[in-house]
Amino acid sequence: MAELPSPCRIPGPCETCPVWPSVLYATDAPGARAEVMRLRKEYRLLRARGNIYRAGDVTEEIFTLYDGWAVRYTLLPDGQRQILSFLLPGDPISLPMLLFDRLPFSVQALTDVSLCVFDKVAMAAYLHARPACVRRLEAFLAREAAAAEERVTDLGRRSAEERVARLVLQLFARLRRRNAVRDRSFAFPLRHRHIADALGLTAVHVGRVLNRLRGEGLLLLERGSLTILDQRTLLKIAGAREIDLDWEQPYLGSI
């Protein structure tokens, strides 16, 4: 496969995979990594804005995001976009394809990405044969449902400042679990339009909120990087405790 000139990491052997602790099929069982390596069909590289999955398509493959960021989204008839979630390294892509032939949402690369590609039938058999993987899968689906309910509350009742603060802190917590945070700084490729499409705001309003948070000394945002300067005040604005926003905690790590 031709490789794109991209800063993305290319998947190597599962034995040395840096995102292994985050993936749903990870277990500590002897030989697990070697077996997953045999299941992996290939890796795939896509540029930013490339389509990973289109709503309604039938596919025999499922993916794990190895490097880069992606978004799950739906398009309305008038062309407006609702971003459902942001996907980070280690996240499964189109996981419901294990149960359904088609999905009602699309997945697009937000940055250049690299993907591990699996046959969905083979991966389903692998997961179902391992109780530890089944528990991870159940916990993942339960937390996804809880996160979706929180997003409904965001859209229906929380202020713009609360929504933006919660999104920043949630991404911070998720990236920290992937060892992708250094001194409270992390890669932040989101533009105002991405935040707006996720939080039901306008890009102009998002810009005003971010400028206010910067002006109050709560965060620093420059050159695709975000640094949290005052986490305590940001949590207060979000109306949450730190643990409330760490929604991956139940299924990441050894089970």
Write up what this structure looks like.
This protein has 255 residues and is an alpha+beta fold. It folds into 2 domains: 14-129, Jelly Rolls; 143-245, Arc Repressor Mutant, subunit A (Orthogonal Bundle), CATH 1.10.10.10. The protein is 37% helix and 21% strand. The protein contains 8 helices and 11 strands. The chain has helices at residues 32-39, 120-128, 131-157, 160-177, 192-199, 203-215, 231-238, 242-245; strands spanning 40-46, 51-53, 61-67, 70-75, 81-87, 92-93, 106-109, 113-119, 185-187, 219-222, 225-228. The protein has a 4-stranded antiparallel sheet with strand order 1-8-3-6. Strands 2-7-4-5 form a 4-stranded antiparallel sheet. Strand 4 (70-75) and strand 5 form a beta hairpin. The two termini are 35 Å apart. Residues 1-5 and 251-255 have low confidence and may be disordered.
Tally of distinct domains: 2
So what's the CATH class of the largest domain? Mainly Beta
Instruction: Determine the N-to-C terminus distance.
Output: 35 Å
Q: What's the gyration radius in Å?
A: 18 Å
Oligomer kind? single chain
Residue stretches low in confidence (pLDDT < 50, at least 5 long) are 1-5, 251-255
What is the 3D form? Answer: globular
- CATH architecture type of the largest domain: Sandwich
CATH superfamily of the largest domain: Jelly Rolls
List the helices and strands and how they pair.
Elements: H1 32-39, E1 40-46, E2 51-53, E3 61-67, E4 70-75, E5 81-87, E6 92-93, E7 106-109, E8 113-119, H2 120-128, H3 131-157, H4 160-177, E9 185-187, H5 192-199, H6 203-215, E10 219-222, E11 225-228, H7 231-238, H8 242-245
Antiparallel strand pairs: 1-8, 2-7, 3-6, 3-8, 4-5, 4-7, 9-11, 10-11
Helix pairs in contact: 4-7, 5-6
